[in-house]
Amino acid sequence: MTVTKIVEIPLVLEIPIGPQHPALHEPLLLKVYADGEEVVRVDINTGYNHRGVEKLCEKNTFYRDIFIAGRVCGICNTVHANCFVRALERILDLEPSPRAKYLRVLAMELERIHSHMLINAVMAEILGFDTLFMLIMRDREMVMKAKEILTGNRVLADYMIVSGVRRDIDETKRDRLLSILDKVEKRIKYYRKLFEEDATINLRLRDVGVIKDVDASRYALVGPPARGSGIKIDARASDKYDAYDEIPFNVIVRKEGDSWARMMVRWDEALESVSMSRYVLEHLPRDSNAVPDERRLPRRFPPGETFTRAEAPRGELTYYVLSDGKPKPYRVKIRTPSFNNIINGGFAYIGYTIADLPAILVSYDPCISCMERAIVIDLRNNKKMYVSLKDLVVGGRK
Amino acid sequence: MKPSLIKEVLRNLFSKPATIQYPREQTIIEPDFRGRHYADLMKCIGCSLCSIECPANAIKMVKIPEEYPAPKKNPRKIYPVIDYFKCVYCYRCVAVCPTRAYIVTNNYRLASFKRSTSEKLSLETLKKAG
User: Fold this and answer.
1) What is the pTM of this model?
2) Looking at this predicted complex, what is its ipTM?
3) For position B39, which CATH number holds?
4) Could you give the number of structural domains in chain B?
């Protein structure tokens, strides 16, 4: 009998996870190569959510760009707007008043609290703990209310403007914000304890997706994923922009480096943000006007270039703005924290099971709409080219 | 001692629901929430600054219809019409207006089947005065 058919069993199975998948809330394709249950390789494929925000910024005036920058990412919109506004202030050589600086910090810290609560809730949902998801989301509403009182909208604050903020708070609003912070702090402490001691969460997250401190710095991870691996990196502490030089706070660092450590860093940071917000409300300077008259702001931007960074809830966010003296910016380059964390973070999945994959991905806190950028690759030469930022900006328009 | 959710769940079983029964019960909203806004044509001078500054291109400058009396300080007889479906409610138009002509409300119930613009609301301000 001659053999006519051979059944080949591949050693490695290719499983596409995403772009649309119940575990992911945003479109991202993880091409997983698995040997049985064990993940041996992960290819990260992006490009499902590209919106051309940088080009849109070049086509609009500087002041319109402040609101476009705020819409790069829904959940960290004040940080995006703040980073862009500070870039404009450097070009214009303006300085906001001390009260405006404090209010900016308050808006950004409130945003950090609700962003960290959201990702912890999503983590609970991914682990199949839907009750906890509902409870955290219910208590997150209080922070959204606080943001509404401060900025006039629950999510998209549109709070930053060149040389100040767009709204001020009075005594009654201050007292309401303080009472909300008291309630939120109690709940965050409870959830932190739950994440520390609950059996389900510990079994699913401890020793899963371990990132060594060497790897975290080699792959240039930023934000809580780096701080969860013992790397003390925080743009708030190193740059001391706005009022961060006057407000006392600790940079939370954990040594474990697993998914659980990253989530605990987020809870501790949320508690730190509550105390910072309280400090801001109690020590708000009264001497100066925080809200500039938007009708009298300078309309002409001198030629110049700036590079600013801010600590978004997901890590370090940088903006590069180049002005050539015309009403529109010549180039706006945005690098979001998820760009580093998700695209470089493929190594952390290797060696764990397929079921661990969503938990590791969520522990990175992915924000896909932030990070989609166009990259030009020369396929003919198949060469890696390193181009400096300045050359990239000048590009073909020399 | 380990914290368990059972206590939390039991407490929530007998407490008021966190959700709001929306159409029957109104959501409590701040008085200075950024909601529907429109131009007061008695103050508007037709300078088009709001239309130029709008980041969403939601504001168009339109001629005031013949049957409405156009104020003297509006020589070009044009007024801003906001497309509420395009508007992102950043209130940049409210802030840049040289005559503070915008009327702001905290109305957030803006869903509709038909195209909704500020045309009617703005023209009504003119009628009332005239």
Assistant:
1) 0.88
2) 0.87
3) 3.30.70.3270
4) 1
A398: pLDDT strictly greater than 50: no
Does the residue B4 lie in any domain? no
* Residue A275 structure tokens: 């105390």
Nearest CB among A71, A148, A161 relative to B33 is that of A148
What domain range includes position B63? 29-129
H or E stretch including A38?
Answer: strand A38-45
How far apart, in whole angstroms, are the C-alpha atoms of residue B130 and residue A264? 64
For residue A250, pLDDT over 80 is answered with: yes
Asked if residues A359 and A17 have their Cβ atoms less than 8 Å apart, the reply is no
Residue among B30, B54, B96 minimizing CB distance to A294? B96
Contact B90 A67 (CB under 8 A): yes
- The pLDDT tens digits for A274-287 are 999 999 999 999 88
**CA-CA distance, A239 to A260, in Å (whole number)?**
28
Q: What is the pLDDT, as a whole number, of residue A58? A: 92
Note whether residue B6 is domain-resident. no
Say how far apart CA A335 and CA B106 lie, in whole Å.
35
Is residue B87 helix, strand or coil? coil
Nearest-5° angle of CA A159, CA A365, CA A46?
Answer: 100
Task: Give the Cα separation of A256 and A211 in Å (integer).
Answer: 8
Q: Is residue B94 assigned to a domain? A: yes
Torsion region of A395: left, alpha or beta (phi above 0 gives left; psi -120 to 50 gives alpha) = left
| The residue type at A92 | L
Cβ of residue A130 closer than 8 Å to a chain B Cβ: no
Q: What is the mean pLDDT of residues A112-123?
A: 92
Residue B9 in any domain: the answer is no
What domains are defined for chain A? 53-333 (1.10.645.10)
